[in-house]
């Protein structure tokens, strides 16, 4: 939302003080609305309800350069790279894909749909200013007099690289900003722990080393703050430490070894190096006459671990009561082709 703090308190208190009538104010003092300095005429005058100014739908929207559609009580306006989705009688709106709450819902007067002026104007990126002395609302669209939208800050040259596997337990963690930032606004977290106090931050990048050994698992770095022109940013990446780049691993397998299955259909999951190819093979067996085991069925599948190294796959084999199901999991790393294998045995 555009910065409107200096207008908001004045505008809200002024609008609340207005008298409810088809035209706001007294008989000779009517609210006027202008868009980019040009007065806007309405066939249905603005009205006030519950401390909010409402105007006819198309009167303001289209003067702000928005395209408006109305269908069975639903109002959709798109313009200035933004979208607003409202429904008659509902206090829930969707602005740029994010759900927001209105104090007062849009409503109908005759054939005219009235919408909350300030909410819709701001949602479309416009500036709204209420002048108490003249009972006027001045709306300025972004294209007319608004500052240029600050560009988004991204992280570049992350170290360790996203998805990398490094042997160091205390690796140097760094990245560069795609544009200058305010160093005092930057917050850095490692696995959810705030490490900003021990991080060197400049306008162009940051660097820190964990003051403690990292476990042999995946770790996430998250960086947030503001650019020098005020644009907020929030970016993250992950890497795996404490494991040789020439090796692989399979851990956190579920169900754990020795589990008694309720049926032959179950889901096996675990953790490995991110984006590894994981081959899962399962074989059911039964003890015949207490002398030898025979296979009761088999199953195999290949899956790919996600960016956090997690994988899961539903398995279905013929599991006989009193028998067993053996599952062999083989992981192959994406860049080194290093393999790791683990076998778990379940009772059936």
Write the layout of secondary structure elements.
Layout: H1 5-16, E1 25-26, E2 29-30, E3 32-35, E4 38-40, E5 47-49, E6 52-56, H2 57-61, E7 67-71, E8 74-79, E9 82-87, E10 92-95, E11 98-101, E12 107-109, E13 112-116, H3 117-123, E14 127-131, E15 136-140, H4 142-145, E16 155-159, E17 165-166, E18 173-177, E19 187-190, E20 193-194, E21 200-201, E22 205-208, E23 218-226, E24 232-241, E25 250-254, E26 265-272, E27 277-288, E28 292-304, E29 310-316, E30 324-332, E31 339-347
Parallel strand pairs: 3-15, 17-24
Antiparallel strand pairs: 1-2, 3-4, 5-6, 6-13, 7-8, 8-9, 9-10, 10-11, 12-13, 14-15, 16-18, 18-22, 19-20, 19-23, 21-22, 23-24, 25-26, 26-29, 27-28, 27-30, 30-31
Proportion of strand residues: over 45%
Q: So what's the CATH class of the largest domain?
A: Alpha Beta
Number of separate structural domains: 3
Average per-residue pLDDT, rounded, comes to 78
CATH architecture of the largest domain: 2-Layer Sandwich
Widest sheet, order of strands: 7-8-9-10-11
Shape: elongated
Characterize this entry briefly:
This protein is mainly β. The chain is 8% helix and 48% strand. It is built from four helices and 31 strands.
């Amino acid at each position: 939302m555009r910065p409107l703090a200096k207008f908001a308190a004045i505008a809200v208190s002024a609008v609340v003080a207005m008298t409810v009538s088809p035209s706001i104010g007294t008989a000779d003092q009517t609210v006027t609305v202008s868009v980019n300095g040009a007065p806007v005429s309405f066939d249905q005058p603005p009205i006030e309800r519950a401390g909010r100014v409402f105007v006819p739908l198309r009167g303001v929207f289209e003067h702000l350069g928005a395209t408006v559609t109305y269908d069975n009580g639903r109002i959709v306006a798109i313009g200035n790279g933004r979208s607003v989705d409202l429904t008659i009688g509902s206090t829930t709106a969707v602005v740029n894909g994010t759900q927001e709450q209105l104090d007062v819902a849009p409503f109908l007067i005759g054939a005219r749909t009235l919408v909350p002026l300030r909410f819709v104007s701001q949602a479309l990126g416009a500036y709204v200013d209420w002048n108490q002395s003249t009972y006027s609302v001045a709306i300025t669209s972004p294209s007319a007099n608004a500052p240029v939208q600050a560009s988004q800050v991204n992280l570049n040259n992350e170290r360790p690289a996203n998805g990398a596997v490094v042997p160091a337990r205390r690796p140097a963690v760094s990245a560069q900003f795609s544009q200058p930032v305010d160093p005092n606004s930057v917050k850095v977290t490692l696995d959810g722990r705030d490490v900003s106090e021990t991080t060197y931050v400049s306008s162009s990048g940051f660097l820190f080393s964990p003051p403690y050994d990292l476990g042999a698992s995946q770790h996430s770095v998250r960086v947030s703050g503001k650019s020098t022109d005020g644009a907020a940013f929030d970016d993250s990446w992950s890497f795996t430490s404490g494991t040789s780049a020439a090796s692989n691993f399979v851990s956190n397998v579920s169900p754990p070894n020795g589990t008694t299955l309720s049926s032959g259909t179950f889901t096996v999951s675990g953790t490995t190096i991110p984006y590894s190819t994981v081959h899962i093979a399962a074989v059911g067996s039964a003890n015949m006459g207490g002398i030898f085991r025979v296979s009761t069925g088999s199953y195999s599948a290949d899956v790919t671990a996600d960016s956090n190294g997690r994988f899961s796959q539903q398995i279905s084999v013929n599991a006989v009561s009193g028998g067993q199901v053996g599952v062999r999991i083989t992981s192959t790393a994406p860049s080194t082709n290093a393999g790791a294998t683990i076998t778990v045995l379940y009772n059936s």
